[in-house]
Amino acid sequence: MYFWDHLEDYSERTAVIDENGRSYSYRELIDAADIFAFATVPRSIVFLQCENSFASIAAYVGFLRRRTVPVLLNDSLPQDRFEELVSIYRPKYICCRKDFYGGGEKSAELEGYHLLRTSYEQSPCDHSLAVMITTSGSTGSAKFVMQSYENIQYNTDSIVSYLGIINDDCAITTLPMSYTYGLSIIQTHLSAGACIIATEQTLMQRQFWLLAKEHKATTFGGVPYTYEILKKIRFGQMELPSLRYLTQAGGRLSKELVLEYYEICRNKGIRFIVMYGQTEATARMSYLPWEALPEKAGSIGIAVPGGEFSLEAADGSIITEPDTVGELVYRGGNVTLGYACSADDFANGDSHGGVLYTGDMAKTDADGYYYLVGRKKRFLKIYGNRVNLDETENLLKSEGYECACGGKDDLLYVYLVGADETLEKEVIGYLSGRLSINFAAFRVVPVPEIPRNTSGKVLYSVLEEQYGKS
Amino acid sequence: MNNIEKYNKVFMESLGVTEEQLAGLEYTGVDSWDSVGHMNLIACLEEAFDIMMETDDIIDFSSYEKGKEILAEKYDVAF
Fold first, then answer.
1. Which of A2, A238, A292, A295 has its CA 20 to 30 A from that of A121?
2. What is the pLDDT of residues A16-25, one digit of tens each?
3. B31 vs A438: CB contact, 8 Å cut-off?
4. Pairing label, strands A195-198, A219-222
5. Residue B53, phi-psi category: left (phi > 0), alpha (psi -120 to 50), beta (remainder)
6. CB contact, 8 Å: A213 with chain B?
7. What is d(CA A202, CA A199) in angstroms, rounded to the nearest whole number?
8. To the nearest whole percent, how much of chain B has pLDDT over 70?
9. Distance between CA atoms of A77 and A94, rounded to whole angstroms?
10. Same domain, A321 and A387
């Protein structure tokens, strides 16, 4: 049984409040969802431009109910990039803001959104495939994670249970809907018959806080950067009596900040829940129970209900001793089907078999709490987005730059040969536009050459040692 | 450097915009002025003018002009 098929159960309850303060019942959400849903054919692909609005949520719900497969795209995606993806994935439909894209035949519209029929025919599509999401919250890659209906329901049930989401809850959006964490907040609240305040306003805008106050938000989520912002605007001193709990995911929050938020939240009488997940696991894999703080600060906690962690040594053996580092492996019904790199992949069924090698290196303590200590793959988390360093490097190389990429979370270094001020501006502008990430996240470091070993492999450790300290 | 020059310089550097773009510039009006850009902008202004801005002023700081008004009225920065 899937929650999206049973939203009628909540019919008169409030499902969505938009940023103008207008509220929509579940009945109205279903009616709006139907407008989009019945303009499509089941098992076809639709590009959905996501934003935190009633129309966008309604379209998503409609596609789930109709078994049409949405590809979720961030609304900050530039139009040329959008069109590039259209040509790769050949969607039968495009559902987007009217002012964004108008190619194709209009077959439905609602509140600024319209559904367009493209000239593409339907690609064959696996029966279990529900939705496709990029691994980075933004737009870096043309690779999508394929999530099944089972994945969504399984992870939603698990999250609703460990967070204790009830139908009186009201979440205000702080993350893009196309981002797996943002989407999971929407899904869990709909599943519980709770309410979503859908807004594109950010924490840095007065209107956001007015909405949260007026409509009595009980929760919101944030990536590490969100919690930096909240600190800056002195969240600790704000009065929001309706808040029940906050969640954090999308990258590692420093132990110091976890402890700081533990204190702030304790003073407010609310909970602060640190979580860990990946798009490849639908959304969440672990959470740190509030009761485990402050003792376990810095830990990603324990596996979500129904899931299971293990640690694997380099030789494939299972690590059972505490404080021994290995690759974190997750098993559970929320491990997604696999990746799509083109329209031909939609028909691929499950390639993960319920097992996910996370690429994160971790250890446990004696009580079985997990701690991340590093990464096996070369990627960074930037403002909650996963940015693959090798892919970024290749992007730059294909533009003709001689470079190597490194850095730390929220700060990507481009070691650039022959860098001067003009080149620096050019590279930063290019990356910022291409990855849809604020330019402050990039730093160009001029280097005379890229150090390599005898077999030609880039010596990232040398670069980091010589130039990577900030 | 007088205050308006200082103010403009912080804007140009922390948001990566040109002097011509400043008049009428609003929050989210350019890609770089998102919440990340806003936080950097505020931090740089605080440093440049040696002030500590209140929450209300940070979240009301919605444009180039509004910011000038806030700094002048609340933080005694004379433009």
1. A2
2. 999 999 999 9
3. yes
4. unpaired
5. beta
6. no
7. 8
8. 100
9. 14
10. no
Asked if residue A199 lies in contact with residue A52, where contact means CB atoms within 8 angstroms, the answer is yes
Whether residue A124 is preceded by a cis peptide bond, meaning omega within 30 degrees of 0, is no
Strands (E) located in A281-325: 284-288, 302-303, 308-312, 318-319
**A461–B contact, CB cutoff 8 A:** no
Answer whether A57's CB lies under 8 Å from A48's CB.
Answer: no
Domain count, chain A: 2
Chain A touched by B34 (CB under 8 Å)? yes
Tens-digit pLDDT profile for residues A140-174: 568 899 999 999 999 999 999 999 999 999 999 99
| A401 and A358 both lie in a single domain | no
Contact B39, B29 (CB under 8 A): no
* pTM for this model (two decimals): 0.92
* B67 Cα to chain A: minimum distance (Å): 13
Same domain, A141 and A179: yes
Nearest CB neighbour to A205, from listed B31, B42, B59: B59
Q: Are residues A47 and A151 in the same domain?
A: yes
Q: What are phi and psi of B21, to 5 degrees?
A: -80, -10
pLDDT tens column, A74-111: 988 888 889 989 999 999 999 999 999 888 888 999 99
Residues A117, A204, single domain; the answer is: yes
Q: Domain limits at A225?
A: 3-372
Q: What is the CATH number of domain B3-75?
A: 1.10.1200.10
For A171-194, give the DSSP string.
EEP-S-TTSHHHHHHHHHHHHTT-
Helix (H/G/I), strand (E/B), else coil: A96: strand
Residues A350 and A386 in one domain: no
Helices (H), A164-316: 180-191, 206-214, 224-232, 255-268
